[in-house]
Amino acid sequence: MKRFPIRWIRGVSLVVAIGLLSACQLPKAGPNKNEILAGSTENGGNAFVVEVDDRVARAAAAVPQFGFPNTFRSAQSLAADTVRAGDVVSLTVWENVDDGLLSSELSSATVLEQVQVDSEGFIFVPYAGRIRAAGNTPEQLRQLITDKLQDQTPDPQVEVRRFAGDGATVSLSGEIGAPGLYPIERPSRTLSGMLSRAGGVSLGADIALVTLIRGNERGTVWYDDLVRDPKLDVALRGGDRILVEADSRTYIALGATGQSRVAFDTQDLSALEALAQVGGLQSLSSDPTGIFVLRKERQDIARAVMGRQELQGDQRMIYLLNLNAPNGLFVARDFVIRDDDTIYVTEAPYAQWSKSISLIAGGLTPVANVATLTGG
C-alpha cells in the first residue's frame, strides 16, 4: 500500500475544508451589520438606516402620553352628604299633638325606614306628597318635609338620615385588591380614595395603569403619577368605571442575544436597559458596533429624524447603535425603546471566524486519523 506524506494529507484536507466552507454558508443568528446597511433606502432598500447620535435620540424620544380630559380634572368633588338617586333615606317625624297625622297613641314619633330615592330623584312622604330629594343635603330635605307638613300638623319635627345607595356607585375591576361596586362616600370621593377603599393595586406600582371611564370619555394615568400629582386625583361620579391593568408594552430581542419577547419593566425604557433585561451582550458573539432597533416611525418623528419634510405617512426606520463610539453608551442610555420595537444584535465577525476554524479543525480530525493508520 502506498503511503502519503502527512504534510500532503493535511494540505489536501485544508483545501477540502476551505472548499466546503466556501460552498456552503456558515450558520448564524441573522444578517450581519454590512448586510443590514446594504438594505437601506440609499442602496435601493425599503427602510431608512440611521446611526443614532444625541440629536437622533432626542428626535425619536416619543413616549406614550397619558392623562385625563379636562372634564375629569375640572369636576368638583361631590358633597359627601348630598342625596342622590338610588340612595336610601330614613325619616323620623315627631308631632306636637296627641292625635297626629302620622303618630300613634303609643308614640308621638313616626319612623319611615328604607325610603329609596327613585330614578328621577324623588321620594314619597305621607301627607307631604312627592318631594325631590336628589341634589339636597339631609338638612335641606328635612326643611322641605317640615314645610310640607307644618300646614297640616302643628310644629312637626323631622329627622333625615341618608344611606349611600346604588345610585352613586363606582365599579372597580382588574388588578385591584377587591374588585366590585363601591358607593361614593366621604373618604372615597376621589380616584385615589376609591382605589384605597378597594384594597389598592395588586401589582407593581411602577407598571400599573389606571383607566377611568365616564360615559363616552376615558383617561389613563400611571398609578405612580396619580400618587405623586394631586391634580390627577380627580373627583368621581356615579356610574364611573375604574380599570387597573399592567403595562402591556413589549419589545422583541433577536440576534446574538437570543430570541424573546420581553415586557417593559419600567415606564421609560432605554436601549441600554432593554439590553440589560435580556442579559446584555455576549462577549464572544455580540457585535457592540452593530445593534439595530427596527421600528415603524410615525410621520412627524420620521421627518424630524431624517430632516426631510416631504416624507409622507409612517416610515420604516432602522436605528444603529454603536456602543464602541466615544459616547456610545450615553447615546444608548438616552435612546428610548417603544412598544413593539425589535432590537437586533448582530454577530461579531470573530464569532463567524471561530465557527470557520472549528469546522476546519473538525474536518482535519478524521483525515489525521487516516494518516495515523497509514503510518504517515
Shape: rod-shaped
- Over all CA atoms, what is the radius of gyration? 37 Å
Q: In percent, how much strand structure appears in the residues?
A: 25-35%
| Oligomerization category of the chains in this entry | single chain
Secondary-structure element series: HHEHHEEEEHEEEHEEHEEEEHEHEHEEH
Going by helix content, strand content and strand pairing, the class is: alpha+beta
Across the major sheet, the strand order is: 1-16-15-18-12-13
SS field, number of helical segments:
11
The percentage helix is: 25-40%
- Which regions are unreliable across 5 or more consecutive residues at pLDDT < 50? 14-24, 364-376
By DSSP, the count of extended strands is 18
Please, what is the average pLDDT?
Answer: 83
Question: In whole angstroms, how far apart are the ends?
Answer: 12 Å
**How many strands, what sense, and barrel or not for the largest sheet?**
6 strands, mixed
Describe the protein.
There is one protein chain. The protein is of the alpha+beta class. Helix content is 28%, strand content 27%. The protein has a 6-stranded mixed β-sheet with strand order 1-16-15-18-12-13. A 5-stranded mixed β-sheet has the order 8-7-11-9-10. Strand 9 and strand 10 (217-222) form a beta hairpin. Helix 1 (6-23) packs antiparallel against helix 11. Residues 14-24 and 364-376 have low confidence and may be disordered.
